[in-house]
Amino acid sequence: xxxxxxxxxxxxxxxxxxTAADERELDEATRADGAVAEELAEALxxxxxIQRSAIQDPPPGLRDSVLAAIRVTTQEGSEAGSxxxxxxxxxDVVVPITSARSRxxxxxxxxxxxxxxxxxxxxxxxxxxxxxxxxxxxxxxxPDAITQVLEGDLGGTLLVTYSESEGAVxxxxxxxxxxxxxxxxxxxxxxxxxxxxxxxxxxAENGSVSERFNGVDPTGFVLGVTQEPAGGSDSPxxxxxxxx
Amino acid sequence: MTNLVPIVSHPWHHDPIVxxxxxxxxxxxxxxxGDERAFAGLYDALAAVVYGTVKRVLRDPAMSxxxxxxxxxxxxRTAARFDPTRASVSTWAVTIARRRAVDRVRAEQSQxxxxxRASQRRPDDxxxxxxxxxxxxxxxxxxxxxxxxxxxxxxxIEMAFIDGDSHSEIAERLDLPLGxxxxxxxxxxxxxxxxxxxxxxx
Lengths: 244, 202
Hints:
The structure holds 2 protein chains of 2 kinds. By secondary structure, chain A is of the alpha+beta class. Helices cover 31% and strands 21% of the residues of chain A. Chain B has helices at residues 20-31, 36-58, 61-77, 89-107, 111-119, 133-147, 151-161, 167-174, 178-196; strands spanning 7-8, 17-18. In chain B, strands 1-2 form a two-stranded antiparallel ribbon. In chain B, helix 1 (20-31) crosses helix 2. Classes of the chains: A alpha+beta, B mainly alpha.
């Protein structure tokens, strides 16, 4: 690769404008040559230094919303048995999250373990290794994913995420009260004309929810959750126990 | 907003430096173990930096809020991939923030909205903020280093990283070839790296 091309790729990385193909090319270049990796690190640090001066307080409600969202988000590398990776960690700085599963490098976790402070005040999140995890993840990780918190009398935390490009809605939750065999939760799209069912979901025994509903476009609707007899209902049985 | 990273004077530095590197790194050590309280501390330390970076690119406050949330969820989810030997916590966060903001621009259906927003300049840039911790170090040093750049590079660097413009927007506005813009970004960052010196990656 020419040094002009490397310079171009580093410029694009700093601008956040690498394409997937560019990124593979840059990954290869950084693995092949430590000097390129250092140049990239320095360029990203300089770009970050300028952008750090562009601070602005986010809206006050965002903090709660972020903290609610992470409570139902499983961390990568929190499951046992993920193998070591040969991928240089620097490249991870510019890796899209969608490729993360195949390149699980865990330098910080390793460093923490080495320092023998594991589990001091920490909670290890156990990954839910459910079928359909990738289907859920593809919505959560879509560039156009929009997440809202469902609020109401239902216990626990429920988040609903919509991706137009995926054409699907995902409901994720934690600490949601379980329901008996004869009952289910039902998600509704509600507007002035009434309520349309988006689908049914039941929490796992530990209260976690992770469900994808295809072909649902909530744009212009309020989302509501009710408790219904198993199999669901044609119209919601009030009260609505959580809504956007 | 809580300032977790106090400015301290180190005897071996002439300037006051921010002790954020070890602090944010140790916070990350807890975050990677799933510590939600530590993550709240990370949010407090970086929210204004991440939101500022995203908003420079997107301009729209509601969209910037959404993307900022996505960025923090990504920081949480991928915490184990952060490597303190290659980048500081804030560089890691800013790099992801920039990337996700650009992704959102690309995902937007309506190019027209983007152009309309691009034509609105931003009067609210550094005001309205009480987080001066990380920035207080950067602003002065970075401004000095920026001022020393040749004008052609400085203008492009400012448009890219202060205004949040893409390289094609810069090319269009300055009527320059795309390759020239990328070259000036790269050249400017190289000079800045040299001028900010080792250890500027807080």
